[in-house]
Structure formats: structure tokens, C-alpha cells
Design a protein that fits this description.
This protein is an alpha+beta fold and 425 residues long. It is elongated and about 90 Å long. The chain has four domains: 64 residues; 111 residues, 2-Layer Sandwich (Beta-Lactamase), CATH 3.30.450.20; 79 residues, Orthogonal Bundle (Helix Hairpins); 160 residues, Heat Shock Protein 90 (2-Layer Sandwich). It contains 16 helices and twelve strands.
Length: 425
């Protein structure tokens, strides 16, 4: 017997507590009767009472079949619903408005007040709902009687989209049925749709440019430059660079989608922070030398451990330090500083500071958007995909950390990765 079956069995015996004494008395009675009368009657008596007991047990095992509690009549349920309708609507977590047939507000929820602050009970709804599509929808439902769905959008204070369901609700009032307006905020859905469309457009544009250049060079190499060995060498070098750019883009896109997929699972492996940062600085020495930038490293006095994915953290510091070399290299210096958390278990930080041209304030909030670049030509010339800082942001989010950016135009920029630390036992 499985454990759930034996549990059920135990419950059955618990639900019929008289079962054991009944069976025992039945057997005793049976034998008493057997002594006085005839053995056969006694046995029959025992059998009858045991059968009754078994019947009781079966009844307990199948309460649905033998349920004795009758469903309550609808009228009783109606009488039992004593909750005030206005209170029910007021407590609804979505915007709801109840109007009578004359368009007077009978009740509304907190969400509806946020949507139309001028709503007042007893006042005409049109005074507060200044949305022509909704007012027209209310009119149409009052006249036609069939439920309607209306969409509308608001531009101020920022873009929002809603759908409203307008349904008739039977009412004892003589003027006709009430109207229930249920609002549904479509904004997050619309934003996600817009972002997806933008993303696909951007990604295909970024891939199409190097692809067009590749097929152009292939045509040239097959045609006019067929015999030109010098041109061929030069074209092949450019083609290799374009192919690398496409590979980098696909690599970044795949990394982004993988990180997004795992965004809800924070990495769990304790990782000492300094060795990772040191490794990245070492691996970028070639680029730093090429750009004439001296990279300085200032570690925290005590070792710091975070919970992290090593490859992803390498990616974060690689992107930030590479950007400091590529875009801030003119300053000739980059300083990477690890700072301890203010209190045990708090956030540690890794700041990457450059002394280049810096970033104008209007760009700062948009830098982590996918494909956002201040100067597309410069980014492309540097082999950038425009996805680096988006990746950094997503990786830090997954690590329950964050990215902050500060810059004074003309004096360089500081990109800081903040990461929660592990408390050492
Ligand atoms: P990219 O692949 O273009 O480097 P990123 O997402 O890493 O993409 O960076 C986005 C843009 O932010 C860059 O194109 C550049 O314009 C700007 N940027 C990033 N880091 C710096 C920096 N240290 N100084 C100035 N501008 C920067």
C-alpha cells in the first residue's frame, strides 16, 4: 500500500471512531446468541453487524457518493452574501467602476481612482472619465445592450494603453441594468511588443550591414578585381573583419538571451573578486599597450567574495575595461578600484575610471539599452556591437547587483559594478 493509501485508511478509521467497538460487540453478541440460541443464528447475527460496520466504513471512504450535506439553495446563498457591493468593488485590485443606467457612479475601486482622480460616487461618470472612446462605449452598451471592449491610450504624463470591458449587470432599479467597467492596463504588453520589434529591427540591421559588405566584396573579387592580387589581399582582410563582426554580434545576442533566460536564478558559487579583475586586466594588456593606456589596479585591503558565475563576471569587467580603453583611451590612464562593502554582507564595488572625453548627461540613462551608441561610426570602427553595456546590466541584475555610470564631459567616465558580497564564516 502506498503511503497516501495508508494515510487514507487511517483517516477512514479516524472518521468512524465507533467502528472498532461495533465490530467487537457484534462478535461478542454473536457468540452470546450462539450460546443461548443456535450457533448458526449467532454467526448470522455477527455477520449482519460486521456487514453494517463495513458498510459504515465504505461510506466513510466515499464521502462524495454518500455525502449527506445537501447543497444550499440559491436563495440562502443570496441571503448569506451580506458584503456591501461598494466595499467589494472598492477592494478589487484592478480598476473597476460601477455605474447605474443613468451613468451615475455607484462604486469604484482604488485603481479606478488612480486612473480618473475626479471620480465621485453619485456624480455622472462623464465628469471624471474624459475619454471619448469610453464614453461612446458606455452609450453604445446602454442603447444596444451588448457588452463592449474599448481600447484607449493616454499620452500624459507618459504613454499608457488600456482596454475597457463594459458589461451590463442586472439591477432591481427601474431605470435599467447597471454598467460595470473593467479596465485592463495593456502598457507592459505594448512596451514588450515595441521592444521586441525594435530589437529584431536593430539586430537584422546590424547583421545586414556586414553581410552587404561581404557580398559586395565577393562580387568585386569575382569580377573586376579577379586578377588583382594586391586588392584581393586587402579585400580579404576587410571581409575577415566583417565576418568577425557578425560572429561577435551573434555571440553577444546569444549571451544576452541566455542571461535573460536565467535571470531569475542568481549564481550561487562563492567567487573571490580580485583574481577575476586581475585576470581581465592581464588579458587586456595588449589592447592597453596598443592604445597607450596605463591600467592601474587598486585592490581592497581584505579579500572580497561574491556569489557569481566566473565567465559572466569576466564578461562584465572585460566590457567595462575595454570600453575605457576604446572610448576613454585618450586620457592615457584607466584606474580599476575594488572597494569593500560598508558593512559585512553589503555591496562591494569595482569602479573602472577613464580620463577620456567623458559622456554628455543626456546619454547616461540610455547607455545600457541594446544597440544604443553615442557615435555609431566610432563604435563600429572599434568592433563594437552596441550590446556590451546591455550585457553588463543583465549580468549584474542576475547577480542581484547593479551598474552606475558617472561622467563629467571632458574629464572622463566612471562605470561601477556593485555586487552583493558573501559574509565570511
Ligand atoms: P559598444 O559595442 O558600442 O562598445 P557598449 O554597450 O559597450 O557598446 O557601449 C555603448 C556606447 O557607450 C558606446 O558605443 C560608447 O558610445 C559609449 N561608451 C561606453 N563606454 C564609454 C566610455 N568609457 N567613455 C565614453 N563613452 C563610452
Amino acid at each position: 500500500m502506498s503511503s497516501s493509501e495508508s494515510d487514507r485508511e487511517r483517516n477512514v478509521w479516524r472518521q468512524t471512531p465507533l467502528l472498532v467497538p461495533i465490530v467487537a460487540i457484534a462478535i461478542l453478541l454473536g457468540f452470546m446468541l450462539a450460546g443461548v440460541l443456535a450457533p448458526v443464528y449467532g454467526l448470522l447475527g455477527s455477520a449482519a453487524v460486521i456487514a453494517a460496520a463495513l458498510f459504515a466504513r465504505v461510506q466513510a471512504r466515499a464521502p462524495a457518493v454518500f455525502a449527506t450535506v445537501a447543497p444550499a439553495p440559491a436563495a440562502d446563498i443570496d441571503a448569506a452574501v451580506t458584503t456591501d457591493l461598494a466595499a467589494v468593488i472598492g477592494a478589487a485590485p484592478i480598476p473597476l467602476i460601477l455605474l447605474n443606467a443613468d451613468g451615475i457612479v455607484l462604486a469604484f475601486s482604488g485603481g479606478a481612482r488612480a486612473l480618473a482622480p475626479a471620480l465621485r460616487r453619485g456624480q455622472p461618470a462623464v465628469m471624471a472619465l474624459r475619454i471619448p472612446a469610453v464614453i461612446e462605449g458606455i452609450r453604445a452598451v446602454r442603447v444596444g445592450g451588448t457588452a463592449r471592449r474599448v481600447e484607449f491610450s493616454e499620452r500624459v504624463p507618459f504613454d499608457r494603453w488600456y482596454e475597457v470591458f463594459i458589461n451590463q449587470v442586472p439591477s432591481p432599479a427601474h431605470s435599467g441594468p447597471d454598467l460595470l467597467l473593467t479596465f485592463n492596463d495593456l502598457t507592459p504588453l505594448r512596451r514588450a511588443e515595441e521592444m521586441r520589434a525594435d530589437f529584431v529591427a536593430n539586430a537584422s540591421h546590424e547583421l545586414r550591414t556586414p553581410l552587404a559588405s561581404l557580398s559586395g566584396f565577393i562580387d568585386t573579387l569575382q569580377g573586376p578585381a579577379r586578377e588583382d592580387t594586391v586588392a584581393r589581399e586587402r579585400f580579404l582582410r576587410i571581409m575577415r573583419e566583417q565576418a568577425r563582426r557578425m560572429a561577435r554580434l551573434i555571440d553577444d545576442l546569444l549571451s544576452l538571451s541566455r542571461i535573460e533566460l536565467n535571470a531569475h536564478i542568481p549564481p550561487n558559487t562563492p567567487m573571490p573578486l580580485a583574481p577575476i579583475v586581475r585576470h581581465v586586466i592581464d588579458s587586456l594588456q595588449m589592447l592597453a599597450r596598443e592604445r597607450n593606456v596605463a591600467v592601474e589596479f587598486s585592490d581592497a585591503p581584505n579579500p572580497i567574495t561574491v556569489r557569481g558565475d566566473r565567465d559572466e563576471l569576466v564578461r562584465v569587467f572585460e566590457n567595462l575595461i575595454e570600453n575605457a580603453l576604446k572610448y576613454g583611451g585618450a586620457g592615457g590612464r584607466a584606474v580599476v578600484t575594488i572597494k569593500e562593502p560598508a558593512k559585512p554582507g553589503g555591496e562591494a564595488s569595482v569602479a573602472v575610471r577613464d580620463f577620456g572625453p567623458g559622456i554628455a548627461p543626456e546619454h547616461l540613462p540610455r547607455l545600457t539599452e541594446r544597440f544604443y551608441r553615442i557615435d555609431v561610426g566610432h563604435s563600429r570602427a572599434e568592433g563594437g556591437t552596441g550590446l556590451g553595456l546591455a550585457l553588463v546590466k543583465h549580468i549584474l541584475n542576475r547577480h542581484r547587483g547593479r551598474l552606475t555610470i558617472e561622467s563629467t564631459p571632458g574629464a572622463g567616465a566612471t562605470f561601477t559594478a556593485h555586487l552583493p558580497t558573501v559574509v565570511e564564516a
